[in-house]
Each structure stands twice: as structure tokens, then as C-alpha cells.
Automatic annotation (TrEMBL):
Source species, domain of life: Bacteria
Gene expressing this chain: smc
Any GO BP: chromosome condensation
Protein's UniProt keywords contain Nucleotide-binding: yes
Coiled coil spans: 172-216, 284-397
Protein name as it appears in the record: Chromosome partition protein Smc
Subunit structure of this chain's protein: Homodimer.
List of residues binding ATP: P32, N33, G34, S35, G36, K37, S38, N39
Sequence ranges assigned to domain SMC hinge in this UniProt record: 419-538
Organism the protein comes from: Mycoplasmopsis arginini
Statement: the UniProt record of this protein carries the keyword ATP-binding: yes
Keywords for this protein: ATP-binding, Coiled coil, Cytoplasm, DNA-binding, Nucleotide-binding
Length: 973
């Protein structure tokens, strides 16, 4: 293989494209110092893969790109192309000719390699160089420094030179690569052993977890089968109960309407009868007054008549017959007796009337008092009904609000498993009803966020949800959050604005430990009364903060608005407090209802007693008034008889007039008495009807109160039934992901539901006893076992690979020993000849420093020039060292010829005679090796096959051209 062309552009001083062609043999490149002739050496070394900028005489790799001069601009790209004749197939490339090239662009920092114009790796080019023996580290490129290195090298470094010459370096490289592989393999074995150990540790607990998970799944399936049937059964039972309650509700409405109609009717009757009794009382009182007046008039007339009769008697002087006297006395006595009875009867009737009037007034007062108590009682009952309705409504609201997401619900139900669990946001924050809608709108879904102490608790809870397929939840770790705030100057501005109510975090209350939570959630949110004021405030503060109104309208950061019609709304906040307040009110109301009901009942009983007494007294009064009327009539009749018998002879006109007047008054009184008796009878009937209607009204009121109480219970029962139905549906949906219609298909009506409920409790208890269950453990166990088997297989493969690598290393060692031994032996033979030729006699020898360790032994060079003692190469003078090193180099080239060798001023330290010997040896070796010699020695120039001259016609830019010996001498002079 021969180098037939070098092309360089932008590399070091080659600003202009340089092309050098070679025909084999010995070619010399000459030029004055600083002309850039050695840059050809660097260019070839660079293409062959050199990565050290120091070796290339620079500070960094970009220094190889032409840096510019006073006349030329810097270049951004360096490229070198080597063309080889490969007809001997020294390189393992299926082409007679091939090129290798390297490109570097300024600023990119990455190199590009090409083989025959196609992108290649640096490794590919290094392999070609190694195969052909022209790698950058071989004897193919030798400068003055290399000759010095050979002379001054340690035995170990000198061995490397021999390995390069013998082609062993490729095998050494392969061995090193194999050693690295072996090291990596050993590391892989150690790592995989750790993995195996770790997997073995994982498998045992996973087996236990998997057994627990299988038991959990089995019991869960059993629980599902039974509980679904129970839930369907409960759903149907509660639905039937709800239908009955709805039907009862219709009946209640009808009964309530009927009772209210009755109560209204009885109330009207009571009022009518009360008015009638009042009117009858007035009529009877008027009649009694008139009767009393007439009785007095009659009495006055009788007294007058008696006085006149007595006067007449005194005038007559006993002229009446004795029989009339006797009769008159009898009548007089009877009249006196009857008059006494009449007076007593009048007194009795007067007292009875006073009693009846007193009782009637008392009944009226008690009825009024009872009506007052009844109104108060109805008011209290209405309050109780409203409270019960409000409680039922709040319970329904609370139930719907507490319809937590699956993940949140699972954490809440298992809160005992997490020491750092605090509560839901909705349970922590309290707010006045006035601000409830605003705060709830802002927090929205955050109300269901779970507050925990720190992120570790949140991580454990999330792992719990994952392992139990428990859904998702959001956690707020108190230790991780930071408070949000509104800048003080902005608060000052906001406080001057109409409708501003405050910062949201200041309008809610929490326990002290949760102060940071409310400031985290609400610390940078402003609250106003209306959307107009909110918009004005947002614009004033440049839309930096969220602003919310009491009606739940929001202006977000940046100015986005959301809001609209206000729906009926009950805030989530304070429901428990409302329930507590309402429940605290109920006992007092119930006590008041009981007290007022007892009082109404007592008044009813007292009114009924007084009514009965009133009736009895009125009846007795009627009897006495009737008797009085009869006695008065009889008295009038007797009085007439008495007057007729007193003096028939004296029948004056005046006596007739008095008698007539008395008779007339007596007739009027009799009519009045009859009328009063009739009115009394009507009054008794009215009182009886009043008492009856009043009793019926009271009874209807009691019945209505009982009905309302029962309805309140039915409303509560209906709410419970609806909640139970909703719970059954929710349980089916969340726990088993089933609709009722689907669950109904699994319903088994034949099961014993009492036994089933016990079984559900037992299964839940058994599942709970299992504790934490990793449902993924079954899959994890299989995956871990599969991984374990796979890793064990990998471990076996690695062990097999290790054995193979060790075999390769052993084989490389054999090849290295064989090749180095062969090379040293051949080189030793040549070295003796070359040394003698170069020194004109003497002897030299190549020796192993460790003959028993040919694999690693260093190499020493011993020499004895003519007339001197034998000694180590290091002990010779500079010129002798250089000549011995060159002799050693030529010995190696004779023993192991290279296709190309570049010599960069290696003979500089030799005297002229030795330079000639050096040049002549090149001619002897050129048959097997192509030489490119960079030199300024005349003895060398005179004995090469071709000369190239290097100059800098433009400052800083190297130019090459072919020259003859004469031109060459002028050039170096």
C-alpha cells in the first residue's frame, strides 16, 4: 500500500489548497525554517486520528484551522485528504485506491471523518491505519522527538515501539478492549448479582402480598355478589317505602285540607254562637229589667190600692159581711205568703243571674285566653315544622355536598391509616353566610382537597390509592405550602374603593394551625359587593388579582370574567353549625309547645266545666223564673179576688182604674216572663251548641297538630328513604361501577337477607383484618419472577461472555508473545548488521528486561561501538544516541517493513558522514517502504528520488513545488 497524494486546505498554514503527489521511493520535503514544511507531517498525523492538540503543536484542536495573517483572512474550515494505492490489499478495503479524510469546522467542535467520501467513524480510520501499520502511534511517523524518545525511552515505552513494528499493538489494543469488556462484564456481573439478590428479597414478601391480594380479591368478589344483592334489595325496599310515603303525603294533604275546613267551620260556629249568646244575654237582661220595673209598678199600685181600701174600710165601719171578712183574711194571708215567695224567688233569680253573668264572663275571658294560647301554640308548631323542614333540607344539601369523589372518599374513610391526616378544606374553613357563596365559588373543587401535615403523608396516601385502585385525590401538605398575599400598597388602594369588603383570607376563620392554609388558598383574592365594583377594582390594580363578588361572579388574573344568573344556593359552609343551632332551638320549642298545649287543654277543661255549670244554672234559673211567673200570675188573681171581696159596695172609679192598671201590667209582665223563658231556652241551646262547637274545634286542632307532627316524621322518613336510595345507587356506582339496572340482573331474591347482612359484616371485618393490601402484588410477583428469570438468564449469558472474553484475552496474549518474540528476534539479527554498518564495526543487542515475562517485559538496547565498552543506550552521547536509535529504527523496518514512513528531520543531530550513511540506508529500504523525508541536510537531499520545496510567497501561507537539487540547495541556503 502506498500514499500517492496529499491534499490539504485550511489546515495550519495551508490557506491555499495544497496537493502533493508521490510515486513511491524516497521523497524529500525541504524548506527554510518557518516555511511550514513540517505541517505536512502534522496533516498526515491528523487524518490518521490524532486527537492531541499538543502533539499537533497547538493549544486546542481549532488551532489547526488557518488563523489568518496580515494579508489573508482566517478560515473556518480545515480539510486534509490522503489517497492510497491499495492494490496489494494491505488495507481491508475492497478497492484498488481509496481516500481517507478529516474535516473540522470552526465553532462546531466536532470532527468529520470520511472514507471514499462517505461518512465514517474515527475508529474506522484507526482500524485501517492499524491494519496497514501506519497508525499515528506507529513507526510510520517519526520526528526528531521520536528518535529522542527511542533513545531516552524506558524499557516499557521501547517495548511499545517494538509492538507497533510487529503489528502487536493491534492485538494489544484488542486485548485492552477485551480487558475493558471483561471489566465491564465483571461490573455487570456484580450489578446483576445485586439485582438478583434484590429480586430474591422482593419475591418472598411479594409472594405473601400476592396470597393476601388473592384472598382479598376472593372475599371482595363474594362481598360484591352479596352486597350488590343487598343494595338492590334495599333500593327496592326504600323505593317501595318512598311510594307509600308519597301516597301518605297525598292523604296527609287531603286530611289537612279537610281538618282546616272543619276548624274554620267550627271557628265560625263558635263565633256565631258566642255572638248569639251575647245578644241573648242582652235581650234577657233587658226583659228582666222590664219585668222588675213592672213588678215594682204593680207593687206600688197595690200599696196604693191597699191604702185606699183601708181608708174605705175605716169609712164603712164594718159594714161588710162577716163571710167576706173571713174570705178577705184568707186571701190576704195567702197573698202575703205568695208575696214572700215572690220576693225570695226574685232574690234567688237575681243571685243566679249574677252567678250566670259571672260564669259567662269567665267563659268569655277563658275562651279569649285559650284562643291566645292556641295562636301561640299554632305559632310554635309552625316554627317546629319549619325547623324540621329546614333540617331535612340541610341534610339533603349536606348529603349532596358530601358526595365526595372516589379517591377523596377512600382517604377520608381510611384517615386512621395516615397520622398526618388533618381534614377536608370544607371542614376546616368557616365563613359567615354573607360571604359563603363568594368563598365557595373561589374554592370550588378545592373544598374536597385533603389537608395533611407534610408531603410524606401525601405520598403514602397516593401510594395507598394506587395499590388499592382507590381513585385520585388532591392533597395540600401544610409543610410545603407558602402563603399568598396582596401587596400592602394595593390593599391601601382597594380600601378606598366603593364596595370593597376585604381580602378573602381575612373573611374566613380557621383554627390557628390552619392560618397558612387560608392564606395559601385565599390570601391573594379580593372580595367586593357587586360585579361593577369588582371590575373597577380589577382595572385599578391592573388585573393582578382575582376579584370575587358576593353573588359568586369572578374576575380572574388577567381580566377574564365569569358569572351570570344567580341560582338558589345554600352554602356548603356552616351546614353542621346550622344543624347544631336548629337542633339547639328545638328542645325549647318542644317544651313551649308542650306547656302551651297543656295550658290549652286545662283551659278547655275549665271552659267545659264552666259551660256545664252555666247550663245547669241557666236551667235552674229558667225553672225559678217560670215558677216566679206562675206565682206572680196567681198573686194577681188573688189580689183581684181580695179587692173584689174587700168592698163591693165601694166601687169607685179610681179603684177600678188601679185594678185595671195592675191587671194591664200583670198581663205585660206575664208576656215578658214568657218571652224571657223562651230567650233563656234559646240561650241554653246556644251555649250547648257553643260548647259543642268549641269542643269539636279543639278536637280538630289536636287532630291537625297530631297530623302535622306525623307529617314531619314522614318528611324526615322520606328524606331518609331518598338518602338511602341515593346511597345505594352511589355505592353501586362508586364501589362496583354498576348502574341499578345492571345490578338488578345479579339480584338474588332467594338469599336470606339477615344472613347476608351478617355475611357482609363478616367479610368486611375479614377484609379489614387483612390490613393494607397491595392489589398489584399478583402482577408485581409475576413481573418480578419473570424479571428474575430473565436476569438469571442474563447472568448466565454474562458468565458465558466472560469466559469467551477471557479466552480471547488468552489468545491475544499468545499472539502478542509470538509476534513480539518473532519481531525482537528478527530485529536483533538486523540490528547487529545495521549497527555495524552505521558505526563501521562494533556490536549491539536487543534484550528483554524480564525474559521470563515476555508478555509484559520491557526492552533494553545494549551497544558497543568500535573501541568502546558495551553499555546501555541511555549512557551514550547525543549524536551516538541518535545514530543508535536510527540504527534500531532501520533494523525494525528491515525486520517488519511498513508501507509508509515519514521522517521529520530525524538526522538533524548526525554528522555529515553519518547523514550519508542514513540516506544510503533509505535507498536500501525503499523497496518495501515508502519514505517521505522532511530535511534540510544536503547529504539526504542528494540521495532522494524526488524533492519538494516549501516557501511562504505570501506571509503565513505555505506553497509547495517540485525542485531539483540545485534549487533545493538555494532554497535551504
Amino acid at each position: 500500500m502506498k500514499l500517492i497524494q496529499v491534499e490539504a486546505h485550511g489546515f495550519k498554514s495551508f490557506a491555499d489548497k495544497v496537493t502533493l503527489k508521490f510515486d513511491g521511493g524516497v521523497v524529500a520535503i525541504i524548506g527554510p525554517n518557518g516555511s511550514g514544511k513540517s505541517n505536512i507531517n502534522d496533516a498526515i498525523r491528523w487524518v490518521l486520528g490524532e486527537t492531541s492538540s499538543k502533539v499537533l503543536r497547538g493549544d486546542n484542536m481549532e488551532d489547526v484551522i488557518f488563523a489568518g495573517s496580515k494579508t489573508e483572512k482566517e478560515m473556518n474550515r480545515a480539510e486534509v485528504i490522503l489517497t492510497f494505492d491499495n492494490r496489494d490489499r494491505a488495507a481491508n478495503i475492497p478497492h484498488d485506491f481509496f481516500t481517507i479524510s478529516r474535516v473540522l469546522n470552526r465553532g462546531k467542535g466536532s470532527n468529520e471523518y470520511y472514507i471514499n467520501g462517505e461518512v465514517a467513524r474515527q475508529k474506522d480510520i484507526k482500524e485501517i491505519a492499524m491494519q496497514s501499520g501506519i497508525s499515528k502511534s506507529s513507526l510510520a511517523i517519526i520526528g526528531q522527538g521520536t528518535i529522542s524518545d527511542i533513545a531516552e525511552a524506558t524499557p516499557e515505552r521501547r517495548r511499545e515501539i517494538f509492538e507497533e513494528a510487529s503489528g502487536t499493538s493491534m492485538y494489544r489494543s484488542k486485548k485492552q478492549e477485551a480487558m475493558r469488556k471483561l471489566e465491564r462484564t465483571q461490573e455487570a456481573l456484580e450489578q446483576i448479582a445485586i439485582v438478583v439478590s434484590e429480586l430474591e428479597k422482593q419475591i418472598k414478601p411479594l409472594q405473601k402480598q400476592a396470597e393476601k391480594a388473592k384472598a382479598y380479591k376472593l372475599m371482595s368478589e363474594q362481598l360484591k355478589e352479596v352486597e350488590v344483592s343487598l343494595l338492590v334489595h334495599d333500593f327496592m325496599a326504600h323505593s317501595e317505602r318512598l311510594e307509600v310515603l308519597n301516597s301518605d303525603s297525598l292523604i296527609y294533604k287531603q286530611k289537612k285540607e279537610d281538618l282546616e275546613i272543619k276548624i274554620k267551620l267550627y271557628s265560625e260556629i263558635v263565633k256565631q254562637k258566642n255572638d248569639l249568646m251575647f245578644n241573648l244575654d242582652n235581650t234577657i237582661s233587658t226583659l228582666s229589667t222590664r219585668i222588675d220595673e213592672i213588678t215594682k209598678e204593680i207593687s206600688d199600685l197595690e200599696i196604693r190600692s191597699a191604702r185606699e181600701s183601708k181608708q174605705r174600710e175605716m169609712l164603712i165601719n164594718g159594714t161588710l159581711e162577716s163571710n167576706n171578712e173571713q174570705k178577705q183574711e184568707a186571701l190576704k194571708e195567702e197573698l202575703n205568703n205568695l208575696n214572700t215567695k215572690i220576693i225570695l224567688a226574685k232574690n234567688f233569680i237575681k243571685k243566679q243571674k249574677e252567678k250566670i253573668s259571672e260564669i259567662n264572663q269567665k267563659m268569655t275571658d277563658l275562651s279569649a285566653l285559650k284562643n291566645d294560647h292556641k295562636r301561640n301554640l299554632d305559632s310554635e308548631k309552625e316554627k317546629l315544622q319549619k325547623i324540621n323542614s329546614k333540617l331535612d333540607y340541610i341534610e339533603e344539601i349536606k348529603y349532596s355536598k358530601n358526595n365526595l369523589q372516589k379517591g377523596t372518599k377512600n382517604i377520608v374513610e381510611n384517615a386512621g391509616l395516615f397520622k398526618g391526616y388533618k381534614a377536608l378544606v370544607s371542614e376546616i374553613i368557616s365563613v359567615e353566610e354573607k360571604y359563603g357563596l363568594a368563598i365557595e365559588t373561589v374554592l370550588s373543587n378545592a373544598l374536597q382537597h385533603i389537608v395533611v401535615d407534610n408531603s410524606d403523608t401525601a405520598v403514602k396516601a397516593i401510594e395507598f390509592l394506587k395499590s388499592n385502585r382507590g381513585g385520585r385525590a388532591t392533597f395540600i401538605p401544610l409543610a410545603s405550602i407558602n402563603p399568598k398575599y396582596v401587596l400592602e400598597q394595593h390593599i391601601v388602594v382597594a380600601q378606598t374603593q366603593k364596595g370593597f369588603l376585604g381580602v378573602a383570607s381575612e373573611l374566613v376563620s380557621t383554627a390557628r394551625e390552619f392560618d397558612i392554609l387560608k392564606r395559601f388558598l385565599l390570601g391573594n383574592i379580593l372580595v367586593t359587593d357587586t360585579i361593577e365594583n369588582a371590575n373597577r377594582l380589577s382595572l385599578l390594580l391592573e388585573k393582578r388579582y382575582m376579584v370575587v363578588t358576593l353573588e359568586g361572579d369572578i374576575i380572574r388574573v388577567g381580566g377574564v370574567l365569569s358569572g351570570g344568573q344567580k341560582n338558589d344556593h345554600t352554602s356548603t359552609f356552616g351546614l353542621d353549625e346550622q344543624i347544631k343551632q336548629l337542633e339547639s332551638i328545638k328542645p325549647a320549642i318542644l317544651s313551649s309547645i308542650s306547656e302551651k298545649q297543656n295550658k290549652v287543654n286545662e283551659l278547655d277543661q275549665e271552659i267545659q266545666k264552666l259551660g256545664s255549670l252555666f247550663s245547669n244554672l241557666s236551667l235552674d234559673l229558667s225553672k225559678h223564673e217560670l215558677s216566679l211567673g206562675e206565682n206572680l200570675t196567681k198573686f194577681d188573681e188573688l189580689r183581684i179576688q181580695y179587692e173584689n171581696t174587700s168592698n163591693k159596695k165601694l166601687d169607685s172609679l179610681e179603684t177600678i182604674d188601679i185594678a185595671y192598671e195592675i191587671q194591664k201590667l200583670a198581663l205585660e209582665r206575664s208576656e215578658l216572663l214568657t218571652n224571657r223563658t223562651s230567650q233563656n231556652e234559646l240561650l241554653q241551646v246556644a251555649k250547648k251548641e257553643f260548647a259543642d262547637a268549641n269542643s269539636k274545634q279543639s278536637s280538630a286542632n289536636n287532630e291537625l297538630n297530631i297530623l302535622i307532627t306525623e307529617n314531619s316524621k314522614q318528611i324526615a322518613e322520606k328524606a331518609r328513604a331518598e338518602a338511602d336510595i341515593s346511597y345505594a345507587k352511589q355505592r353501586l356506582s362508586e364501589q362496583y361501577n354498576m348502574l341499578f339496572e345492571t345490578a338488578k340482573e345479579l339480584y338474588n331474591p332467594e338469599i336470606n337477607f339477615d344472613v347476608a347482612r351478617k355475611l357482609v359484616n363478616d367479610l368486611k371485618s375479614d377484609i379489614k383484618e387483612l390490613g393494607h393490601v397491595n392489589l398489584d402484588s399478583i402482577t408485581q410477583l409475576k413481573e418480578t419472577e419473570d424479571r428474575y428469570n430473565e436476569v438469571k438468564k442474563q447472568e448466565k449469558d454474562i458468565i458465558d461472555a466472560k469466559v469467551t472474553i477471557e479466552e480471547v484475552i488468552s489468545e491475544m496474549d499468545k499472539i502478542i508473545i509470538e509476534r513480539i518474540t518473532n519481531t525482537v528476534t528478527l530485529a536483533n539479527q538486523e540490528f547487529k548488521f545495521v549497527f555495524s554498518k552505521m558505526f563501521g564495526g562494533g556490536m549491539a543487542e536487543i534484550r528483554y528486561t524480564e525474559p521470563d515475562n515476555l508478555l509484559e517485559s520491557g526492552i533494553d538496547v545494549m551497544a558497543q561501538p568500535p573501541g568502546k565498552s558495551i553499555k546501555n543506550l541511555k549512557l551514550f552521547s547525543g549524536g551516538e544516541k541518535a545514530l543508535i536509535a536510527i540504527s534500531l529504527l532501520f533494523s525494525l523496518l528491515k525486520a517488519k517493513p511498513l508501507p509508509l514512513c515519514i521522517l521529520d528531520e530525524v538526522e538533524a543531530a548526525l554528522d555529515e558522514a553519518n547523514v550519508i550513511r542514513f540516506a544510503e540506508f533509505l535507498q536500501n529500504l525503499k523497496e518495501n517502504t515508502q519514505f517521505i523525508v522532511i530535511t534540510h541536510r544536503q547529504g539526504t537531499m542528494e540521495r532522494v528520488d524526488k524533492l519538494y520545496g516549501a516557501t511562504m510567497q505570501k506571509r503565513g501561507v505555505t506553497t509547495f513545488f517540485s525542485v531539483n537539487l540545485t534549487e533545493a540547495k538555494k532554497l535551504i541556503d
